[in-house]
Amino acid sequence: MTIRKQINLLLSAIVVVSVLLTACEKPAKELSFNPDEINEIFKSSPNRLQTADSLLALGVISQTAADAYKIEYYGKVGDMKRAEAIADSALSRKPQSEMDRFYHLIIVSNSVDHDVTARRYAAGLQKAQQVLDRFDGTDDAAFINQHHYMQSVYLFILTNVARCNINLERNEQADANIHQFLHLIDKFANQAQGDSATMQQWANKRVMYLTNICLAYCNMRQWDRAQSLLTMIEKSMQEYARYPQADQQFLQTYSFQISCVKATILEMNGHHQEAAQAYEEFMKNPFANSEVGRVNSVNYLIFAQRYDEAESKINDIEEVVRKFGMKMDLQTLNGVIKNKFRAHLGAGHRDSALAVATRILNQLDSAEVWEKRDKAAEMAVVHETHQKDAEIAEKEASLLHTRVIALAILLSLLLVFFVIHALVRRHARSRLQALNEQLETANSQLAQNNQLLTVANERAEESSRMKTNFIQQISHEIRTPLNILSGFSQILTDDGVELDATARKDINRQIIENTDRITGLVNKMLELSEANCRTFIELNDHVPVTQIANEAVAVSGIDHTGHLDFELKVPAEAETTILNTSLNAAARALTLLLDNARKFTAPAEAYAHQTSTSTKQHATLTIRISKDSVQFVVEDSGIGIPADEAEHIFEEFVQLNEYYDGTGIGLTVARSLARRLGGDIQLDTTYTHGARFILTLPR
Predict the structure, then answer these.
(1) What is the mean pLDDT of the chain?
(2) Is 191 in the same domain as 104?
(3) Which residue did the predictor score with more confidence, 137 or 313?
(4) Which of 203, 322, 458, 599 has its CA 20 to 30 A from that of 442?
(5) Could you tell me if 565 and 691 lie in one domain?
(6) For range 322-327, the mean pLDDT
(7) Domain with 598 in it: what CATH number?
(8) 380 to each of 113, 160, 387, how far by Cα in Å?
(9) pTM over 0.70
């Protein structure tokens, strides 16, 4: 794997960790679906399918969201069968959440657009209508109205519904769709007043969607309806062109389509000169000589009786049909193939026209079979849907009947219960007087228990608060080095950045420091996971007492701390005393005590009694040898610990002074290690000049 791929994987991991840490910081009721964060993860992921499955397994996204990203992936790689299979499965599920409604609408949009492209108009209309029927007066309507992207997706679906109705020759329904489209896009644009960028996007969408509807009318030879939209489209293009950030390539693309349609309509209405001018404007467009441009221009050239030009532009029609994956159905034969016949015939090339006519006749039977097959498939889809609706209605009726029976049974049971309850209550009255005296005695005990519960509740609330602080601190401390690593990764992978040796050395140093910082935090969290473990640690090391002390001093760095004087007191007999223990666990426990001494002798905002930060503090590590044990005594002249907190400080996440950095788990882990080695750690409450901790290990 190359360095660039490794860095990309690291960046993907950083994004995922950042999202999960952010989610961990928020209470559950404050969590909200943010599609931008999820899209960012997929944009930076080298394997989108694996990322979708991972986020689904973690519960970050729903099944519908995962399906939407898989459909997008398979659509881009051209595996439309798999994309359609996933879409059918996703659309069979009812949306259960805001995230589901978001991605369900996107899946419907993509699926309907693919049906229109494949000329499955009835199937596409059926899918889209399920969404349109839920729009008025429902939660889906409020959801769509609150999201700009969802508004655009909904209008795209509405546009495709109009195109389906046009191709199915349902003009009244298409008129209603267009009317609703114009009403909604005006409404959404008015909501964006003052937001220039959003208003520009709506102007862009108006041109795009109206042009798609206009071209559908042209394909069906409904030129009068196409003409009614033409003026509206030209006006919308002029409005869009006035925006400073208007996409010029977009304007060229749609101007080329509209100018060709305009030329054809003007020619049909007898405006020959204006039609010729519109055609000349069309030919100036860079897209005019493309395959689509040549095919679109043939309608005008045939109506204008410019057959030679039409013949030259449609001569390679077979290549165009093959390139765009058009099947030889009735629509193709009645469209581009018939235009080819007219061009040859008008140009006087009767042999070529005869060859095209022969081909049309040869293909006509197959085209009719395909047409009937497609209609049969569409009818099968409709029939299957009606059948499923009937099954659902039948199941709902059966469920209602079952509920009525269950309710009757429940009422009967309640009646029996009340009768029994009345009898038991009458019998219980005779026993109440005898129990009153017992209750009075129990009340005093209950008061004591309530007092204990109050104390326990206060402790529980304090523990919850400290755990929350711990999570927030850990997430902050992890996110900071992650952001630094992310920044330097982007710098190192940017081709335009040149770094000298000094800069590279500094970046390398900071990367190592932040990596070590993350490693340290992870080690602390791993130690915390073992804090409550009661399994004894294997005592396989035979080490001198002084080795444990020296290793702990070296790791903690307490002897090189500028704010205090440190002294190690080792009796002569310690040099020859050997302990049967675990060197790593014993040294780690002692290191945590030394870290505690180093930290709480340093100045802090809450350290009010420390009048001069220049005064050096003192810390001492003393080794005491007895017959059965060895004691490591750590004393410091720091802020000290109240005697009534002697046991509380060993609990998880406890920090008596919040102005000092820390996670509140050091003493918890230290005592756990000591006890698992057969020893213990205690706070000496008789020491009043700071804090004195005693680590005892058996010999």
Answers:
(1) 77
(2) yes
(3) 313
(4) 458
(5) yes
(6) 53
(7) 3.30.565.10
(8) 20, 21, 10
(9) no
